[in-house]
Amino acid sequence: MKKILLFSLFLFLAWPCFAQTQQVLIGGMPSIAMTTASDTYQGLYANADQDGYFASFAASEPNLFPNSGTLRYFRVVLSGAPSSGTYTFTINDNNTDTVITTGAFSGSSASDLTHTIHVKAGDLLEIHVHPAGSPTAEEASWVVDFIPDVNNEVALGTGQGNFGTITNGNLIPISVGHGYVAGTGDGPQRVTVVMPCAGTLTNLYAVSGSALGSGNSLTFTVVQNGSTTSLSTEIQGTSQTSNEDTANPITISAGDQIYVSVAVGGTVSGIQTGIGATFIPSVPGQFPIMMGNASTQWTNNANTYNEVSGRPGNEAAAGESLTEQVSNAMTIQAIYVFTDTAPGSNTKFTFSLRDNGATPSGGPSCYVGGSSNVTICNSVTGSTGTSGTATVKNGDLLDTQIVPTSTPGTQTTGSVSYLAYSSPVGYEKFLK
Hints:
Blueprint: H1 2-18, E1 23-29, E2 40-43, E3 63-64, E4 69-78, E5 86-93, E6 96-101, E7 109-112, E8 117-119, E9 124-132, E10 140-148, E11 154-162, E12 170-172, E13 193-194, E14 199-208, E15 213-224, E16 227-237, E17 242-245, E18 250-252, E19 257-265, E20 272-281, E21 286-291, E22 304-306, E23 325-326, E24 330-339, E25 348-355, E26 365-369, E27 376-378, E28 385-386, E29 390-392, E30 397-405, E31 414-421, H2 428-431
Antiparallel strand pairs: 1-10, 2-9, 3-9, 4-7, 4-8, 4-10, 5-6, 5-9, 11-20, 12-19, 13-19, 14-17, 14-18, 14-20, 15-16, 15-19, 21-31, 22-30, 23-30, 24-27, 24-29, 24-31, 25-26, 25-30, 26-28
């Protein structure tokens, strides 16, 4: 009897140590049709890319993963059944297919809820798409859960991209694309994302596809609310292809606007480069889901829609089906929005979560514009938002609806982020 009581006490006391954030990673491009005749690859998550990249070779568009942990619960949804052919979706880690795969399927959805894989910090992760039997060209979105090895860590990773000739002042978004870089003339609004939750940003990780060469370097630095921070890392020389800053964490408040600036030493051209960072939320179980900008184009005379994760695949689509992304179970607790310009006094854009083509009753929403002509809003504080939560189920299709009122000025860039929550995985994970 004493042993049973002691064991029960041990589990009770150990519970906080074992509880781990269960992050939902959403990806895919629901507005871009896949290639039907050859294998293609796309980043694992946050990769709805405006340019429509499904790359033709592995390790060309992966996400740099900044954390170690476990991936599980993989789901894929297509815009329609691929007719006479099939598709197979497989998670690829460092240019090698893993055991997480849908297998060949001819319907409009598939999943692998059985297999898991362990990933390490610095791994390059992507989705390998294999068509067979001449399937019809369909669009796809996918989702997978991530459970970190270290309690409460959340992964924020931007995919690699061929940056071409990089110059001082180039800017990169965090966790919203395949590696889009804003030019020095574009301004930070093209890459800024708004953080929907408070916590600590740390472990800035950078990787290059090859060494930069003697005398050449790339320095990546996090910019927070327009100010350079101490979180920075450099790749340089003839042998180094990655580096990490684990010594300079920065404190994040909900609503902070962040991106990464690039400083070039020497001459760097045609190098694939990716960044990642670890976020530790103040509230265990919370994590951000962020949609970046770059020519978002919210029109002022009709409702438009955007993906919830990544970069807009087709700017702001008039057809909602072009932006819906599949999700795993979680709770959406808040919405945060940043726009580059004010819509105009007494006009506004209202932003709301959509779940399976409907606005959840009591869900969060907020607007920019209004009588005070605001450019930032959230559903938690102030008078520009409506607080509430939305319960998302496994397999639900999510997107953001943007509703104009009184003909606001057309917006060219902006960022929409959701504060998401999933109950931390407890000790039962370790007893299975």
